[in-house]
Design goal:
Elements lengths: L1 E4 L3 E11 L4 E10 L2 E5 L9 E4 L4 E4 L1 E6 L12 H10 L2 E6 L10 H11 L5 E4 L15 H6 L5 E2 L8 H12 L5 E2 L5 H4 L4 E2 L2 H6 L3 E2 L2 H17 L3 E3 L5 H11 L5 E5 L1 H5 L21 H12 L5 E2 L8 H4 L16 H12 L4 H8 L1 H6 L15 E11 L18 E11 L2 E4 L2
Parallel strand pairs: 2-5, 2-6, 7-8, 8-9, 10-11, 11-14, 12-13, 14-15, 15-16
Antiparallel strand pairs: 1-19, 2-3, 3-4, 6-17, 17-18, 18-19
Helix pairs in contact: 4-7, 7-8, 8-10
Amino acid sequence: MKISKLNKHTVLKGGIILDPINNIEKKGDLYIKDGKINSLFKIDPPKEANVIDCEGLIITHGFMDMHVHFREPGREDKETLNSGSMAALKGGFTRVCVMPNTQPPLDSPESMRYIIDRSEECPIHIHPIGSISKGQEGKELTEMGEMIAEGAVAFSDDGLPVENSRIMRRALEYSNMFGVPIINHAEDLCLKDDGVMHEGVVSTQLGLKSSPGITESNMIHRDLELADLTQSRLHVPHVSSSRSVEHINVMKNKNNNITAEVSPHHLFFTDEDLTGFDTNLKVAPPIRSNSDRKALIKGVKDGTINCIATDHAPHTSEEKEKTFDLAPFGMIGLESCFGVVNKVLVKENKIKLNKLIQLLTCNPRKNLGFDYDLFKIGTQAEITVLDPNVKWTFTKHDIFSKSKNSPFVGKEMNGKIIFTIVKGYLSEIK
């Protein structure tokens, strides 16, 4: 990857400008002056402008991921904010939100400030998600107001669910005062019962402890009811089961404060892919059945699920080389994201590219109350340039994360990131 300072006058020439907000997909040029959007289509740049040939490419908003784990502070051997940023750029992401299950957890105003200060040194925009409970113990709420003042954009104990319904209700009520969402890791740990994969025929054949889809949907149903009771904002992360999609769909028809995400791996794999005992496929919630996968795709099509989030979760090779039972949950996913979701949703299931771009750009920004019209004149340039048609094979050389725990190595992708522009820099993706 080559990163260079953006020229004072930069023109993206001859590409298809895809505006996911106004549903515009039209060939033209985009002029960036002093790092800001100056004009689209009808442009008048100076002769000394740096012209970047985008013929045959899509020019669109910079991707945003609401759900990543960068492991800093505490486990910098797995990922740092800077290495995670490089992985994000590779995947076309100009902005991410980091989950708080670090060591120690991000559960104080000081920890929010740490992330904000460190992110200034990184090549993308990074926002902290604060812990719901102190120490992520699920017992006592954090100082949400003070954490928001220092940069928290949402609250979650992700990695662990908030099991206590009273605490969850109070979290929703308190966060509602500030207009930020609660993001609860939806797994009923009693039902999960140390399961390491989806409960079904395959788990029986493999002899692995398993957990049923209701492990997730039971918790989601509770959270949806509490969000409705409190009229608070709830974002449902990494939806994986058909019943969960049903619950979310029903509640979204009653409450417009509900949003939901799906991760690329739940759209791509099924539990049958675990027959090789690849520990990179050990994730929480688990890879489920093909009927669940189809329900997720349908949920994307009908708007029940409104954004894509990778749940990028780095682990060291030593950790993932353990037996399936003992290996940690999680896989990386930033670098492979677009190639996966474009293949599954656009190429195989005929979802329009514009809709996919919405799932990756304006929708996650809307979910968190961010500015999302990135083509507005005068806006700081956050641009992703991509080729939606190229076929390629994902390899370890495509991984910029410090960790290499990707099950997509060796898989064929559809669509590739070519350039990103963010923070006044141009990244040429190799």
